[in-house]
Specification:
There is one protein chain. The chain is an all-alpha fold and 141 residues long. It folds into two domains: 96 residues, no CATH class; 44 residues. The protein contains five helices and no strands. The mean pLDDT is 86.
């Protein structure tokens, strides 16, 4: 944790040419989480007792600060050597994956959804059977 705090205040990029896609998408995801949280804060801030001033200048400044902090945090996190090495490894392993073709994906999806519906139907039938039994012996009203 202390290593992460030290890394947070550095301005260098770690292994800038490795794991580019994984790092960019991870940083984008973290930024979106912070930005949506800041937006949600801005929208719901009139209900907060400390910011209920009538105008939303304070809430807007806090929301912008949260968004900027999120951008900086995302950038620093994906350049933290431990996390960056993990993302580089993830991108390397994803390159080795054999992805299914569209027909294989379609047939697998059909199989999964069919089994899901069959199992859901079986659970529904068992639930009805047990409910009928419990009502018959007056365990439930």
């Amino acid at each position: 944790m202390i290593d992460l705090i030290k890394e947070f205040f550095r301005f260098r990029r770690y292994k800038p040419n490795q794991g580019v896609y994984a790092r960019r998408l991870t940083a984008l995801g973290i930024f979106i989480i912070f930005a949506s949280g800041a937006y949600r804060f801005f929208v719901t801030s009139p209900a907060l007792p400390l910011i209920n001033t009538g105008d939303q200048k304070i809430a807007g400044i806090i929301a912008i600060a949260l968004t900027l902090f999120g951008a900086w945090f995302a950038f620093r996190l994906v350049n933290w050597h431990t996390f960056a090495n993990f993302l580089v490894s993830v991108e390397g392993e994803m390159a080795k994956v054999s992805w299914p073709s569209w027909p294989e994906l379609y047939s697998s999806t059909v199989v999964v959804l069919t089994l899901f519906l069959i199992l859901a139907g079986m659970i529904f039938i068992f639930d009805l059977a047990w409910m009928t039994i419990f009502k018959f012996i007056r365990v439930i009203p």
